[in-house]
Write a structure and sequence with these properties.
Elements: H1 28-35, H2 43-60, H3 67-84, H4 93-104, E1 111-112, E2 119-120, E3 131-132, E4 139-140, H5 154-175, H6 204-218, H7 224-236, H8 241-245, E5 246-247, E6 250-251, E7 257-259, E8 265-268, E9 278-280, H9 285-295, E10 314-315, E11 318-319, H10 323-340, H11 345-348, H12 351-354, H13 359-368
Helix pairs in contact: 2-3, 5-13, 6-7, 7-9, 7-10, 7-13
Length: about 375
């Protein structure tokens, strides 16, 4: 079998210039490597659509956009396409399946235990002239015993599947293709892998119980509804934990939420609350928002005020952004006790899972579910 050849395709985020409009790599070294790829793989066409997808993602999903995570996925897809000589744009379910298998068990030689720069940075020269870093590796993986790699987590895999689906949704819509998305049938539930044991996940039923039952009525804590709101954002949005809480100088404020005429709620794309761009939140988020606002005695009919989403984070010691994760840790045992006492055997059996409750557990459970 041909050796797997890898090289970086996208620039570091600091060198990304989407406003220039070109979808051909600026790096001369990268273009030289693409020229050497088998033409059957159509390397420039696949790269063009990936670069366009990257720009569109930054525009259409600003709150959930992660340049580094997305480029790692797109680079792996392109390089696997070059290796198999099947154009990325022609992938079917078999190619997607092969790529996911490769991603979960790549050659050790294209992995490293820590991240490395894609290029040899030389600020005396323009980026287009920078050389590729020979020590760059496609994957960051922790080595296990006997020369093997530790398995990927469910969270990592589910994010990968999400990005692959999202890319093909974009491509099929852009070209008006009638074909089905080749990644639609894939999820971490359909793969029998040796997942990392750190990936504790909750089912949809357990997530529903946590947000609509446990934290609203079962758990008696003055922070319960704040935790409900915090974890609701983990489940129903792409905002990071840091974005939900904000910073001392830019807290997440209530005026970033807006009730529409049909009763649904929208989220402002701007961290300042004033925006021309509003994103509809999933309907199950509606009762969580309204329950929380009612507990704050906020008028739901009027425009929401410019007040912190979590006012208790601003105490005598000043704003502490890590307090929400602290509140979640403090409430874990109460949630676990409520689960153990629940009449539903499935909920009762999950008590130990809730003892590990975190923003990230809810997020990866949502992506996996």
């Amino acid at each position: 079998m041909r050796p797997f050849i890898f090289f970086p395709i996208f620039p570091a985020y600091s060198q990304w210039r989407p406003e220039r409009g070109s979808n051909i790599p600026e790096s001369i070294a990268v273009c030289d490597r693409l020229e050497k790829v088998c033409p059957d793989a159509q390397p420039f066409s696949g790269t063009w659509y990936c670069m366009e997808f990257l720009k569109r993602s930054a525009i259409t999903n600003p709150t959930g956009f992660s340049y580094n995570e997305l480029t790692r996925c797109l680079e792996a897809m392109l390089l696997w396409s070059f290796h198999t000589r099947v154009p990325l744009l022609d992938w079917d379910e078999q190619q997607v399946d092969g790529f996911l298998s490769f991603y979960c068990d790549p050659p050790v030689g294209c992995t490293a235990a820590s991240a490395r720069n894609r290029f040899l940075e030389d600020y005396s020269a323009p980026f287009k002239d920078w050389a590729i870093n020979p020590d760059w590796r496609l994957f960051r993986r922790t080595p296990g015993g006997n020369g093997s790699l530790n398995p990927v987590t469910r969270d990592v895999f589910s994010r990968l599947v999400f990005h692959v689906k999202y890319f093909f949704d974009f491509y099929l819509l852009s070209t008006g293709s009638p074909h089905a998305n080749p990644a639609d049938g894939f999820s971490s539930a359909s793969w029998n892998l040796n997942w990392s044991k750190s990936s504790v996940v909750l089912t949809e039923k357990q997530l529903d119980w946590l947000l609509t039952d446990a934290l609203t009525s079962r758990v008696h804590s003055r922070h319960a509804l704040q935790v409900m709101m915090y974890l609701g954002f983990a489940r129903y949005t792409n905002l990071t934990a840091k974005q939900v809480v904000g910073s001392p100088s830019a807290q997440f404020t209530l005026d970033r939420l807006r009730r529409e005429t049909d009763g649904d709620w929208s989220l402002s794309a701007s961290s300042g609350g004033v925006s021309d761009s509003w994103v509809r939140l999933p309907a199950p988020m509606n009762p969580l928002i309204e329950r929380y606002l009612q507990s704050r005695q906020v008028d739901l009919i009027r425009a929401l005020p410019n007040l912190p989403l979590f006012p208790q984070l601003s105490g005598v010691d000043g704003y502490r952004s890590f307090s929400m994760s602290t509140y979640v840790k403090r409430i874990r045992e109460l949630v676990a006790d409520a689960a153990r006492a629940d009449d539903d055997p499935g909920i009762a059996a999950s008590a130990d899972c809730f003892r590990k409750l975190s923003f990230f557990m809810v997020r990866r459970s949502t992506r996996f579910a």
